[in-house]
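Quick one: examine this chain and its backbone structure tokens and tell me how the chain folds. Here goes:
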Amino acid sequence: MSTTHETAAARTSKVSLLTLTTMVVGSMVGAGVFSLPRRFAQETGVAGALVAWTVAGAGMLMLAFVFQTLAVRKPALDAGVYAYAKAGFGELPGFYSAIGYWASACVGNVTYWVLIMSTLGAVVPALGAGDTALAVVLSSVGLWLFFLLIRRGIREAAAINRIVTIAKVVPIVVFVLLALFVLDPSVLAGNLQGADYTGSVFDQVRDTMLVTVFVFLGVEGASVYSRHARRREDVGRATVLGFLAVFAVFASVTVVSYGVLPMAEIAQLRQPSMAGVLEAAVGGWGSTFVSVGLIVSVLGAYLAWSLMAAEVLLVAAKDRDLPRFLARTTSKDVPVNALLLTTGLSQVVLVVTLFSRDAFDFALDLTASLSLVPFLLAAAYALKLVLTRESYPVASGPPVRDGVVAALATVYTAFLVYAAGPTLLLVSFLFYAPSTVLFVLTRREQGRRVFHPGELVLCGVAVVVAVVAVVALAQGWIHL
């Protein structure tokens, strides 16, 4: 860790429960909340939405507790989410977990640019829903301008991030309050069971799971704040308080929207759909208010997640899990090669959105899907620790709470893999299989055998699935 980072950590090493809670909220509230009304209205009614948020809230809370427990039980594993997969299941699964988490952040960054262009598309029709050639060109310019900004130095780039928390929270809170003020009980009742195009409650819940994963991304970051806590027990309290606050906001945005417009109309709104709902509630200024807040919020979120994605590669390279060139930093402590690779992958995915049916929903779903393997392996590792009693006192063994939490988190993340469906899982392997080249380069740098037998089998499976994905896309069996 650099001297700069150590100094920053020292300055924030003793923070209060309120500050910790704010940090948790800030890491979780993202631009995805601005898209919730339309996405939920396309899949479910009020009843299904309430069930979906209950399942997602409980599942993600269990996952947050898993990361909190692992941070305490395995404090030496501080290289990121992928470190748990590596410790529990081997180097190649850990490598794929790191790649999945990194790629998830890169694809998530694409959703930000699509959402910005879709927002501006209400004024400039040539931008469409953020999926036109002009939108991709302008997004690409923004992508590389931010690369140059961050390349100048993290301190300069981070200064922009100071206004992001307010830009995120204020428009959302105002939206909820205004929508509550004009809420029509009869409209809400009409949206209760769903529309003709929605299936059973189970189908509705399954179909909305990925969007809940997307908006809750960042829950895994709660445990990293433990080193800043004034009191150790404040970490768990901040996790719960911050998560519940964010959960209440997300659920409120969804439910109050059903009281403003019929869900069939919400489902047809352009993104950001919060703007369309507020416009229906209070007039044109409501749309403008949400749109301006969204753009500021999204740009800040893009900056933060670009730094985070590059940090994943940097830390993995320093841990000798990725090639050495990704560990190189500039004189201003910027991981330039990791940042370049991150920006490059986002650029590729941005171009791919031109060929998708719905650029924003495709990028959103793929972001969530790529995060599932790291989350599932982390939950499974926590369960493995309980079953093997590793890191627990021999006399007493693991507490029942840890076992229940780990089991529920594992079941929940496994259900998310099922809910993602075969298309997104196949497409995910188009990231995993080619990335194996980095694994090979790492082993060769270290003069080690490239693959052990079990790793060779896993690599073979990844390549085969990736080939199937390419064939399926070429033949039109699956669509982006």
The longest helix spans residues 400-445. Residues 1-13 have pLDDT under 50 and may be disordered.
